[in-house]
Amino acid sequence: MTTDGWERLAPGVARRRLPFLDVTIGVVTGDDGVLVIDTGSTLAEGAQLRKQVTALTGRPVTDIALTHGHFDHVFGAAAFPGARIHGGVTLDTYLDRERPSLPRDAVAYGADPASAAEAAAALVRPGNLVAGHHELDLGGRHVLLVHPGAGHTMHDLAVVVPGTPPVVFCGDLVEESGDPQAGPDAAPDAWPATLDKLLRLGGESALYVPGHGAVVDARFVRAQRDALAARFGRP
Predict the structure, then answer these.
(1) Are 181 and 167 in contact (CB under 8 A)?
(2) Rounded Cα–Cα distance for residues 117 and 167 (Å)
(3) Does the structure show a pLDDT above 50 at 86?
(4) Beta strand 24-29 with 13-17: parallel, antiparallel or unpaired?
(5) CATH number, domain at 212?
(6) Is the pLDDT score of 126 beyond 90?
(7) H-helix or E-strand containing 121?
């Protein structure tokens, strides 16, 4: 079911695919809080998402989980003033180090140069860094933020939403609309084992939400894990 571009995955859990780069945005609602997962590629995109989520849930966004530090997932974060920002361990140092290069990456992928520079200047560092796992209480709903290990980056963060069905927001540890991207900040040797942990966290019945593309199941994640292992020569 979709509502104004939002796809309902489970009670209080939804996502949408943004037109630019097919980035997935997630929303989880509790009695007291609203969690947004990733924030888009520009401040304008983030501001539009904030308005949409407020209209969808009837309340302001209280928390943001950044699945990793690439521009298309973090550049809208400053458009959510007052929200608590969560990220994987070392995301803060990554953003500090890569602040000059992130807008260049954005422009290389087709972003407007002025918008990319504006977003980089306003870049928000996470206040809560997750080294293992962190249970986030949204009021009547507990969400698990997990750093399952390195893979797409050294600081990947997954969001596990228990329920029927369980929903796992994977960030770019899993991609459906193309092959997983292993850039210079990836950890290919560790990636298959990280996906194994993600599968243990979600289980066979979970919906796995990739950073780009359609929602997939455990069988798809397992096949991608095997493909990555073959690609990088690891068991």
Answers:
(1) no
(2) 34
(3) yes
(4) antiparallel
(5) 3.60.15.10
(6) yes
(7) helix 113-121
**Token pair belonging to 194:** 């990280």
Task: Encode pLDDT of 92-108 as tens digits.
Answer: 999 999 999 999 999 99
CA dihedral 111, 113, 119, 125 (to 10 degrees): 90
Coil, helix or strand for 90? coil
pLDDT over 80 at 2, yes or no: no
* pLDDT classification of 206: cutoffs 50, 70, 90: very high
pLDDT for 3 equals 58
Estimate to the nearest angstrom the gap between the alpha carbon of 56 and the chain centroid: 19
User: Does the predicted model carry a pTM greater than 0.90?
Assistant: yes
Q: How far apart are CA 59 and CA 47, in angstroms?
A: 15
Angle (deg, nearest 10), helices 113-121 and 43-57: 70
Task: Look at the chain and report how many structural domains it folds into.
Answer: 1
Q: Where are the beta strands (DSSP E) in the chain?
A: 2-3, 6-10, 13-17, 24-29, 34-37, 63-66, 84-88, 128-130, 133-137, 142-146, 158-161, 167-171, 207-210
Residue 67, domain extent? 2-232
| Angle (nearest 5°) at CA 5 between 104 and 179 | 50
